[in-house]
Amino acid sequence: MAVDNLDIVVESGEIFGLLGPNGAGKTTMISMLCTMLKPTSGSAKVNGFDIVKEATQVRKSIGIVFQDPSIDDRLTGRENLYMHANLYGVPPGEQRERIDRILKLVELEDRGNDLMRTYSGGMRRRLELGRGLLHYPKVLFLDEPTVGLDPQTRDHIWTYIRELKKAHDITIVLTTHYMDEADRLSDRIGIMDHGKIIALNTPQKLKDTLEGDVIMIKSPNLDTLTALMAANLELTKTRIVDNTLEVTVRQGKTVMPRIMEIAIRHNLVIDSISLREPNLEDVFLHYTGKMIRADSGRELHGFSAIQRRKIK
Amino acid sequence: MTELRGFYTLWLREVKRYLRDRTRIVSSFVQPLLWLVVFGTGIGAALRSGFQITGVTYQQLIFPGIVAQTLLFTAMFMGISVIWDRDFGFLKEILVAPISRFSLFLGKMFGDSTDAIIQGVIVFGIALLLGINFTLIAFLECLPIMLLITIGLVSVGLVIASFIGSLESFGAIQSFINLPLFFLSGALFPVVGSNIVWLNTAARVNPLTYGVDALKTVILGAAYAPYQIQPLLVDIGIIGAFDLVMIGLGTWAFTRMK
Lengths: 312, 258
Hints:
- The complex is a heterodimer of chains A (312) and B (258).
- In chain A, 41% of the residues lie in helices and 19% in strands.
- Chain A is an alpha/beta fold and 312 residues long.
- In chain A, the strands form three sheets. Chain A has a six-stranded mixed β-sheet, with helices on both faces. A four-stranded antiparallel β-sheet of chain A has the order 10-11-9-12, with helices on one face. Chain A has a two-stranded antiparallel sheet with strand order 2-3.
- The radius of gyration of chain A is 23 Å and the shape is elongated.
- The two termini of chain B are 25 Å apart.
- Chain B has one domain.
- Chain B is 77% helix and 0% strand.
- Chain B has helices spanning 2-20, 22-46, 58-87, 90-95, 101-130, 136-163, 170-183, 197-205, 207-220, 232-255.
- The A-B interface holds A 34-37, 56, 59-60, 64, 66, 68-75, 79, 82-84, 86-89, 92, 302-304, 307 and B 1-2, 5-6, 8-10, 12-13, 16-17, 20-21, 84, 87-99, 166, 258.
């Protein structure tokens, strides 16, 4: 089962992030909310409409930016937008003006009449974002909006998403397996794993639940050191990642000198030691006991793979 | 009104894509030219008796059949292009739109049909250059018949495409649909009325047979009258019925598409 008995209320006007590893059920959930997939049981409402009984009303209320590219690259940007406007019943008299405005919003006004195949990956993504807004949806779904894009373009797109939300006063539901994306964009985050929401709160509160900072230690005597620390200090959690010991403690700043003390007293070598605030990765680890691998790109097949390669 | 605009915009997309694909338009000249010039002249010269109509060259005789063949191959190819849309992700954009699957199917189908008919008209142009005789009125009468033939064929392509997953199966369509329908349609040689029973039967259940018969009736005129399989109106009735069935199947296939 890809999605198992979720009970979530997304507040109007918020950016809600669904964070989870690939295969957690994020896309399945979005597909159901977009009426592309029928739930086997249960129900959901989008903009007050039932996703099973009032599918057409739901479809009129939402905009979607799919995980994979979904534009016609043999048409121009403008033509893609006109087609979308017609499919979503935007009155013909308003189409031109709205399209001009959207093109301006996503900074593609000078490229509107070029064929989509001449666009870069980031430009295509921007056009898709703009297209999702063309019919003034109440809810915008973004399925992995920046997957496969370079850091600069991702940053750009995040800025757009925030601006779009501000300008159009819409609710945004976004899925991602990038920690930084969820952290920077979302008002609230639902952490998803194996089809279930395992934690739901604002990014800050999620991090606060860890009750502590992370101290990272590199040392050739990790095992001895770990045992000594466990015996002498109050540790919330310890783990070893890539030969680095990570300990979660309440007061990182005061614990660090004591670790050094222990090491010196027992003649243990410490190569490096550093302190950081907990991030969502730690939160995810805390709840699931494993890490989200941010680099585990989804396997793409056929032409989607070719498209995606172009985007990179 | 929303449905109509949705239909229109999908139709427009297919036609635009087609008209922008210059290689396809150029190559669309080549195949009918080969059939008419090489095959038509060659076989025509080799044939001494049997399939001959007095006053009509073999080239002229197969011309309506080559029009039908062009419609068949183009329609099937365009229908299959739904798979292409799916692979490129574009299909999702239209499937999730708040428009009925019936309008969606009709938009796609009539768009593809328009492209196929343009290809068919190109064959008329080639025929004109080759000095094959037909009247302007015959040409104009052929247009609605071509539309009727194409609707059913595009729908067949769309239905098949909605069931098969990948473009690799396209070769199979060529072997199992295009060539059998073409060879058994009477486009190149008479099959209905043949004393070989299986050939005769196969041709009679082939919807394209009636399309070819209708086109020959209109283009060849009086010379073809003795060889006619059915009166023109019966041909049109059969093709029309086939179209309706295929539109029904196509809409159903699109409704279950995810």
